[in-house]
Amino acid sequence: MQFFIRNPRRWSICRSRSAVIVVGAFFLACTVLADRTVSGQRPVQPPDAGERLIDGGQAAGTGDARKGAGQTGESQSVREEATAMFAAGCFWSAQTDFEKAPGVIGVEVGYAGGKSRNPTYGNYSSGGHREVILVKYDPGKVTFAGLVEFLLKHVDPVDKGGSFIDRGTKYAPAIFVATESERAEAQRVIRAFDEMKIYKKPITLPILQQAEFWPAEEYHQNYRLKNPLAYHSYRSTCGRDEFVAKYWGDRANELTLPGAFPDSEKNDAGETPSSDRTKKRWEDFKKPGLIELRKRLTPAQFRVTQNNGTETAFHNAYWNHHSQGIYVDVVSGEPLFASVDKFDSGTGWPSFVKPLQSENLVYREDRQESMPRVEVRSKHADSHLGHVFDDGPADRGGMRYCINSCALRFIPKANLEREGYGEFLHLFQQNDKTTGSRTRTPLDSQKK
């Protein structure tokens, strides 16, 4: 029964006699499934992101990918698909989490990274393998970098010895890359996390060269659906959910770093958002208490927005970010700035010539430094954003809004309609990115 009690400590989840009786029924069902032979198991080499896959998961022109269930000899429609492989601890939980990620089509659990062939649940560890997931995704809706960001939000990336309650290298998280481009993207995302100082230690999660993927036994696939009681008992005591909630709160499934979405990302549902979704929800926003905000925000975001902190220049998410889209308040979602008004100020912080909607900003005099400055805050969330100066580009109004990346969340142009910001799409249909007028601020009354 090793396939259920993954290590002795997990048996402690069944503390009552009634629980043991109920789980026993699941043991019987799983044992039958476990007896299925895996001698014919074949490795799946995850195709590169640029390959075109046939519906069902088989890579065109390759023999290593398995045919998907239900595929027939009839002509199959061709669509852009790609695969990515990650180790993320217990593959039951990893599969469940990644099925919620944007752009993901399907997730399969298995083993990879070792030297033995045809590994099984009983011997994969001795063969040097890890538990992994093979993620099939639509590169038109999410990028490899976006999936790496999602991974880092659902594992403990500074734990070298395993994942949560599960100890040993076989459970340790890792990123597998097929190309140097993927390696560079993974490194960029890791640097972004380190620069945000979310964790007390630098991220140690390894980036490994792509390896053969060996599908796990059938009873492990979608385990939470086949054995919901056993899965819930494990999940509720393994420590994963508590860790994710502590560091990410309800934003764990959101992708906010630059490059997480391609410019061609479309509405997953293929429909126009309803009026409820396009409502300006930030206008009715009620700021939560500090305890709740600590749960929702990363430590760096909380320090900047709630304690008037300043992040390090040149070591933040958006100082050198050039994708098209808008920047909203990380707390309330109120629109603040647009990429068309962004410029390189050389200061190491995101800089804009004007706000997207001036009514969403509040200005206050700041005398904390030797020279008085004008602080910029968001109206509805009352978040500290940064400061405004009058040394910006003269041909664009002369203003420089110097803003902390931690106070912002970027929404790509392709996501504006879906997330309720469709009214700003017109900004990116114009070639002229300059402005003939500027927003009046309290600096006007302070000029010498």
Protein architecture, described:
β6 (162-163) and β7 form a beta hairpin. The longest helix is centred in the N-terminal third of the chain and has 18 residues, at 17-34. The chain starts with 16 loop residues before the first helix and ends in a 36-residue tail after the last strand. The chain folds into two domains: 8-63 and 76-251, Peptide Methionine Sulfoxide Reductase, Chain A; 275-445, Peptide methionine sulfoxide reductase (Metal Binding Protein, Guanine Nucleotide Exchange Factor, Chain A), CATH 2.170.150. The chain contains ten helices and 19 strands. Mean pLDDT is 78; it is low at 1-78, 266-279 and 431-448. The chain has a six-stranded mixed beta sheet with strand order 9-8-3-5-4-10, covered by helices on one side. Strands 13-14-18-17-16-15 form a six-stranded antiparallel beta sheet. Strands 12-11-19 form a three-stranded antiparallel beta sheet, with no helix packed on it. The radius of gyration is 25 Å and the shape is elongated. It is α+β, with helices and mostly antiparallel strands and 448 residues long. It is 21% helix and 18% strand.
